[in-house]
Design brief:
Layout (H helix, E strand, L loop, with lengths): L1 H20 L1 H6 L2 H28 L9 E5 L2 E4 L6 E11 L4 E12 L5 E4 L12 E4 L2 E4 L3 E10 L10 E9 L7 E2 L7 E2 L7 E8 L9 E11 L2 E10 L5 E11 L5 E3 L3 E5 L4 E7 L7 E11 L5 E10 L1
Parallel strand pairs: 2-12
Antiparallel strand pairs: 1-3, 3-8, 4-5, 4-7, 4-9, 6-8, 9-12, 10-11, 13-14, 14-18, 15-16, 15-17, 15-19, 19-20
Helix pairs in contact: 1-3
Length: 316
């Protein structure tokens, strides 16, 4: 449509040009008519060039851009009842110019008292979710710039085992083709084992049935620490409930000498039953000397309740 308008304008410009510079027509025109036609000629030419420039500027580059491989979501928060079966999607996108292959697996993991994870075979964790999870497919091939979905079906048992919290990690692990073994010596006694770099994505999956308590997080330590010139507030909390808690923690700081207030960095975290987690909130190096009141706050995602602890300290 735009091109046809440009051709029409150019046709009009050509006729005006001919009318202005044809000897017969030019001698019979009045100066006023010549001036008017010249203005129309200039305006039409500029307008046609402007439309053409806009048309070129609006043309989109449809060449796919190479970004990488992405997986979503980054975590699952389930809240299924006993006997409930639901299916969810994992989306895997290959925005590269090469083919990619992935194995899809599920593992259990346990955490020690300080939050360090250790992976376990499926079904072996104390709070195993993997035995209730089915993945389909368990192997995917992605062509360049292709997207595929993995179905995650979670079947919570209807007996008492379905009344507890459970968790696992879903892994999207790259399957790289192995190179042939290469002899590095003529006698064939030495073989080079090539290293093939691969990558994986971990998706944490947490299941909280409606009956569990998710707001039983308690402070077990809240203190001021100073090491050399570094000053920080230390917070340690424990999940004393039977449910997985999704929390936000922060510290409100008040200078008792001036009344000035500020909030230290907000931290979001997940804490499973029986787990202790600790956090350091670094104090700004520019914090003035004086006495301070610190209020540590735990805000639950699924509850209007909060937990708080208070402490006074002094910076000399």
């Amino acid at each position: 449509m735009i091109k046809s308008h440009i051709f029409l304008l150019l046709f009009l410009v050509g006729n005006i040009f001919f009318a202005l510079f044809d000897k017969h027509n030019s001698e019979s025109m009045s100066p006023k008519t010549k001036l008017s036609l010249t203005i129309v000629l200039i305006f039409s030419a500029v307008f046609a060039l402007n439309i053409d420039a806009q048309n070129k500027g609006n043309q989109k580059d449809n060449t796919p851009k190479t970004i990488g491989v992405s997986v979503s979501p980054s975590h699952f928060h389930f809240s299924q009842k006993q006997g409930e079966i639901n299916t969810y999607d994992i989306t895997v996108k290959n925005t590269t110019s090469t083919k990619k292959e992935f194995n899809v697996n599920v593992y259990d993991f346990d955490m020690n008292g300080k939050g360090k994870s250790s992976f376990l075979p499926a079904g072996k964790g104390k709070y195993s979710l993997s035995k209730w999870v089915n993945l389909s497919p368990t192997f995917i091939q992605l062509k360049p710039f292709e997207t595929k979905k993995v179905k995650v079906t979670v079947s919570i048992p209807s007996d008492d085992s379905g009344r507890k919290a459970a968790w696992s990690i879903l892994m999207i692990e790259q399957e790289a083709p192995r190179d042939n073994l290469i002899n590095t010596r003529k006698d064939g006694n030495t073989i080079a084992l090539g290293i093939v770099p691969t990558f994986a994505f971990g998706i944490f999956a947490y299941q909280n049935p409606p009956n569990v308590l998710t707001n039983k997080i308690e402070f077990i330590n809240f203190s001021f620490n100073e090491v050399n010139s570094s000053k920080a507030l230390y917070m340690e909390v424990e999940n004393q409930g039977d449910g997985i808690a999704y929390c936000t923690s922060y510290i409100d700081l008040t200078n008792l000498d001036t009344g000035e207030q500020q909030r230290l960095k907000v931290k979001n975290f997940t804490i499973v039953p029986d787990l202790v987690r600790n956090f350091n909130f670094a104090l700004p190096s520019t914090l003035p000397k004086g006495k301070y009141l610190a209020i540590g706050v735990l805000d639950y995602e699924s509850s209007e309740e909060i937990q708080a602890a208070r402490m006074e300290f002094e910076i000399n």
